[in-house]
Design brief:
By secondary structure, the chain is an alpha/beta fold. 34% of the residues lie in helices and 21% in strands. The strands form three sheets. A seven-stranded parallel sheet has the order 5-6-7-8-9-10-11. Strands 3-2-1-13 form a four-stranded antiparallel sheet. The structure holds 2-succinylbenzoate and magnesium ion.
């Protein structure tokens, strides 16, 4: 039996502090939350598209269109035996990975809940807890940045990532290293540089960084491979990798030595797992990226990061790093080892707080198969 209904909401949840990257500032987490209902079970998916096409081409409006017009009818009309067969069924839809991933992840949660199995177990995860770090946005001053780092280190985070952009790169890294010579440190440029910046990027080699994330164009691998040859620090691709094939090509030409996996960017968990498997084969370390998700998206990230090849700490911080109050009943908290526990309850393993979800909902519609009958 296909799913009985697809509920599509838009939500607005204020962030505890603005998050600035080389492409803009986010003050509020805006997202689409999809709920799939079947046999008395409600399963959730979260869409990581933003209000505008800054990180990728997709937006909340474009994703909503694709979910409503193209994906909802599939799950409302057809019996699909697995999330992988849903992905197969969406072959004719080019791109729009974040929209497809939203429904795909909803199907994983549904399958887990119907089979009384945790998501981590369903996908073959082995870890009981996952290593995590924190991603710190561009700060008004270096002093603010150092204060932020000190407070996150006090919380127990063991890996720091800072966002960089032209004019805010060598200086902050140098100051962090002066104060903290030993911490695990990495930087993320979100495509703010070009090969003309090779000299500055080479200077980063002196600071013992874990990796440099996506320094060059979002749609490039050629220049990244040229740059990697000039640097000792591993390059890590984020924006450039949308499929296992993208990764195969990037690895083949040496465009990166590390890959960040985000299920939204990868069309869902099934493709993310395939990417993880490819990277294991090629001995490419991977880590789970983040998109400032609510507790719903975070639960998927934690399950994904429980796969054995996720050997580097993920951008999966505790709920309170993002929100005053997350929309799940038991928020994600940092353990004393600086990790997050992998939920063991069925599906995503966290309960959505429906009152809090309603409170941050700005629009809601429910689709059933009736709407799609000719
Ligand atoms: O490039 O990793 C990124 C947030 C929004 C868009 C892109 C990125 C990010 C982050 C946030 O770095 C990481 C997190 O969710 O904690
Ligand atoms: Mg990134």
């Amino acid at each position: 039996m296909p799913v009985e209904s697809v509920e599509i909401r838009e939500i607005n949840l204020p962030l505890v502090s603005p998050f600035e990257t080389s492409f803009g500032v986010e003050k509020v987490k805006e997202a689409i939350i999809v709920a799939l209902k079947k046999n008395g079970v409600t399963a959730y998916g979260e869409c990581v598209a933003a209000s505008g096409p800054w990180y990728s081409e997709e937006t909340i409006a474009s994703a909503k269109y694709i979910i409503k017009q193209l994906l909802a009818p599939i799950v409302l009309k057809e019996e699909l035996d697995s999330p992988a067969s849903f992905i197969d069924r969406t072959k004719a839809i080019r791109g729009n990975n974040m929209a497809v991933a939203t429904v795909e992840m909803g199907l994983w949660d549904l399958m887990g809940k119907l089979r009384d199995t945790s998501l981590s177990t369903l996908i073959g995860g082995e870890k009981k807890e996952v290593q995590v770090g924190v991603s710190i946005g561009i700060q008004p001053t270096i002093a603010d940045l150092l204060d932020n780092i000190s407070s996150y280190l006090n919380d127990g985070y063991r890996r720091i990532k800072i966002k960089i952009k032209p004019g805010y790169d060598l200086e902050p890294v140098k100051e962090i290293r002066k104060k903290y010579p030993k911490i695990l440190l990495q930087v993320d440029a979100n495509s703010a540089y070009s090969l003309q910046d090779s000299n500055m990027l080479s200077e980063l080699d002196t600071f013992d960084l874990l990796l440099i994330e996506q320094p060059l164009a979002h749609d490039d691998i050629i220049d990244h491979s040229k740059l990697q040859k000039l640097l000792n620090t591993p390059l890590c691709l984020d924006e450039s990798i949308h499929s296992v094939e993208d990764a195969r090509k990037a690895i083949e030409i040496g465009a990166c030595r590390i890959i960040n996996i985000k299920a939204g960017r990868m069309r869902g968990l099934a493709c993310s797992k395939n990417l993880h498997d490819l990277c294991q084969l090629h001995k490419i370390p991977v880590w789970c990226g983040g998109m400032l998700e609510t507790g719903i998206g975070r639960a998927f990230n934690v399950a994904l990061a429980s796969l054995s090849g996720f050997t580097l700490p993920g951008d999966i911080s505790a709920s309170k790093r993002y929100f005053k109050r997350d929309i799940i009943t038991k928020e994600f908290e940092l353990t004393k080892d600086g990790t997050l526990e992998v939920p063991t309850a069925p599906g995503i393993g966290v309960d959505v707080d429906s009152k809090l979800l309603d409170a941050c909902t700005t629009s809601k519609e429910t689709l059933t198969v009736q709407q799609f009958r000719p």
